[in-house]
Structure formats: structure tokens, C-alpha cells
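re the bet — no i am not wrong, look at it urself. input seq straight from the record:
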Amino acid sequence: MYAVAPEPYEHLESAKHLLDGLRLAGVGVWRWKVDSDFLLWTDNLTEVHGAPASRYDATLDSFKRDVHPDDLDDVWRAISISVQTGEPYSFIYRTNPKVTDQVRWIETRGGLVLDENGEKWLTGACMDVTTRVRAEMQLTRRLRQQRALEELGSFALGEESLQAVADRAVRVAADVLEVPLAKILQLTNSGEELVLLSGIGWRRGSEGHEHVSNNASTMAGFTLQEGRPVIVSNLALETRFSGPQLLHDHCVISGMSTVIAGSDERPFGVFSVYATTARAFDPADAEFLNALAHIVANSARQIAATEHRMLLVREMAHRAGNMLQLVNTLAHRTFTPNHDLAKAHRIFAERLGSLSRSNFLIAKGGWTMTQFASLAREVLEPFRDRVDMRGRDVLLPPELCFDLGLILHELSTNAVKYGTLKNVEGAVELSWRIERDAEAKEYFLMEWSDALSKGMEPCTQTRGTGFGSKLISLLVEQKWGGMTCTDSENGYRFSCRVPLNNTEPARNSLGGQAA
């Protein structure tokens, strides 16, 4: 005996069954009597919109209040067309953030129907499609970002101007991320601050003039310290650092920044974007900005490498002659009639060794701007555990670095003979920094402090009389137009101050021998 099957749709004709299915599927149904303010909807429609149930008052106005103000005109236009033509409608709108718990994307479909009295009703169903819409938007955004990266990468590959690459990169960042402000900050030679290399949306004339400290109290400095992308939701509420005045002047609320790598351990700078409205930057945005920063970094390396090769060819010819003249001067000053030959030979060999180490480090970088810290570590390698070094990661002209290597050699040699390095324990102190005066002129300051030494020679005079002392004076004062100062009251303290704005040295400064 077989059971009799129920009539088709028997159970689904029950309103309760239909409502249960709609509720569990997250679908709400509404029904509007055309040309009136009367609106009906299922109990779960407010839940679909993320609005409280108390919002329902059986009026069309209550529905309009739930729609995002920017979408309301489009929604009503679609409804009007459906009423006029009788064609089904389908559109997606956002909920009003002032009414709902959060902005949701709602898809609605439906059309015009007539009731048993011949009256027109517009009816339809709504469902929350936020997850789907956001996924589609994310995919569209990622594809757009990918195309932008490909185009910028191709442009940078054939571009010989770093400024052009930086300018294009900030435009791409602002356009793709849809922000009004973007900038690239480059770490200055002093290592103490960053300067605006390129930007979009900032006040005219900011490039090359806006300076930002690189300490951790600023967003750029904090980014350098973190070494990874930094996202700010609300600058006014930020506790990790304070935004510079430039950001406040431009009414920045949200922002994001990442490090632009350099050709070595020293970073090139920071790439940042900012919004003047609350913006929730996500990891995908950070990845995109990071990729832009990599393109700028690679371009900087590529352009620098090309410039290095060209400079190296010219510098090799120039330095070969200068090096021979310098060696000749050192030999002439070292092998004097009053010197013991064996002692003079040892001193000369040590000075040549210092020359060799300095030359190797600087030539390795192509005779371009050189990290003084690396030079100091290289020259003072034999005493690395006995020299306390303190200073910023500053960049200096190669020839100045070369001469500073000679000076460090003479100072360390003196400490071995007469000071701290002569003993088993103790350390000398070496510090350096770049200063800027009221006229924006920059100076390199270096200080050597040896608590046990009395000077460059074992005598009571403030300044030594040997060739080491004379060499230092000739290099700093005559060749570079700087100043030296020594103090032997409490040990030996040497300091020098070299102007950096004019990095061309005076020629024929070593007693008639060009260096």
C-alpha cells in the first residue's frame, strides 16, 4: 500500500512556512501600495537592514530613511521606472549608517502586481549581499592595483630620472587608493630628518623644503623604526606618535606609510598616503603601498648604479693621480732624516693600510655619498671593541670620507702610542653629527675623546707638532675650509667642523701635494 503524496505546494501555501523559509534565508519581503505612503513588510526586513524593529511604522518614509542618502535617488528612480513600465526591477543599495548598525549592501528584486481589486502594488524581496559585494569590490580593487603596479614598473624600468619615478608613484598611489594626499620622504644625508621628495595634494612649493624629524615621535620616524607598514585610523586619537604640523594643516584624519628600502642597510625614505575623512585602510592597501615603495626603491638603486658606473670611470682617472701624489707626500713627510728607518717604515705601512681600507670602502660604493659610520668601523676595525662610536647614519662626500679615514687613523695611532689604546682596558669615544646653522648651512662635526692621552705628541702643548697633527690640520682647515679644536686639560679631546654645502675641496693643500 502506497502513501498518497500531498498536493503540490500544499505546505508552502502556509504563510508561516513561507516566512520561516524567508527568515532563515535572510530574505525580507515588502509590498508598497503605489501612489500612497502605505508600506508593508515582513518582520525580518528590519533585521536584514540591520535596523531596530521599532523602525517599522508602515510608511514609505520609514523605508526611505533606511537607505543611504547617496543611494536614495538611484533607488527611487529604479522604482519609478518599474511603476511606469511594469518591468521588473533589480538594484543594490547601501543602508543608512545613521540608522543601521553598520553600512550593509542590500539587493532587492521585484516588480508591479495587481490585487483582486485591480490596485497596483510594487512588491519585492531584499537580502543582505554585503559579503558578496565587498568580495567583488576587493577583487576589482586588487585587479586595478595590479594593473597600476605593472604600468609603474614598466615606466620605472626605462626612466633615468628618479624624480620622474617618484612623481608618477605618488600620483598612482593617490589615484588607486582614492586619497587626496600622498608623498615620498627621502632620508637626508644627516640621517636626522626626512625631506619631501615628491607629493600630491600638498601646498605648492613643499617639495624639497618640508622637513620631518626621523625620531619615533613622528609617523615617518615611527615607520622607519618599525620597518613595516603603519596604518593610522584617526590621527587625533593616535598614541604611538604625533603627526607633524604639515598633516594637521591639511586636516589629515587617516593615513598609511611604509619604508622605502635603500641600497644597503640605510633606508631611502618613507612612502605615505593620507585621507581627510575616516578611512579603514586594510592589509591589501598596505601590500599595494609596499609594492609601490619597492618599485621606487628599485628605481633608485638602478639609477644610482648607472650614475656610479659613470662616476667611477671619471673618478678612477682622477683618483689614480691624486693617490700617487698623496702617497708621495706621506712618504716625504714620514721618511725624514731625523726618523729611525725601521720606525718610519712601520708608520708608512700603517698609513698606507689606512689609505687602502678607506679607498676600498669608498670605491666599493662607486665613489658616491658614503656612510661615515661604515667608514669609521672599517678604519678602526683593529680597535672595534675599544672605540665607543655614537652618531647618526650620515652620508658624506666620498673624498671627505677618504680624508676623514686618514684623520681617524692618526687619532687611533696616537691613542695606541700615548693614550687609552696603549693599555689593556678602557675605550676612546668617537661621536659625530650634522648641524645646520641659522642660514641653513650644514656642517659635519666629529669629536674624538681619549681620557688617558695628552695630545698628538707626548708633550704638554695643546696641539701636537708631529706630522699626524699637521696632516689633520692641512686636511680639515686648508683642504676643506673647516676648523679643528683640541683640548688636553682632561685627557685629549679633538673636534673638527667641516662645511658641507660646498663639497669641493681646495687643491694643492698638502704642502704643495694635491690630495
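see?? The mean pLDDT is 81. told u. also Residues 11-128 form a domain with the Beta-Lactamase fold (CATH 3.30.450.20). so pay up
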